[in-house]
Amino acid sequence: MSLPLIGSGSLGETFFWVLHRLRYMFYLVLPTETMYPEVESVPRLVVEMFPFFILMSVVENGFRFLSGKTISRMNDTVASVLQGIFQDCLRIKVRSIEIIMYCFFYYNLRFWTLPWDSVWTWYFSFLLIDFGFYWAHRLAHEVNFIWAIHQAHHSAEDFTLPSGLRQALLQPFTAWFTYWPLALMGIPPSIFMAHLQLGEMYMFWLHTEMVPKLGPLEYILNTPSHHRVHHARNPQYIDKNYGGVFIFWDFLFNSFKEEDPKDPPVYGLVHPVQSYNPFYLQLHHWATIFRRIRDTPGWSNKLKVPFYGPGWDVGKPRLGCYHEIPEIKRPVVLWDPPMNLLEKGYVIVHFVLVILFYHELSMRNLVVNQTIVTCAIVVLLASISTLGFLMEKRSFAPILELIRCLSFFAVEQVLWPVVESIHLFHLHRVLIIQTIRIVFLVSAIGCSFLSLIRISGRLSPLRHHLKISRKKDL
Question: Which of 63, 189, 254, 366 is deepest in the core (most CB within 10 A)?
Answer without folding.
Answer: 189
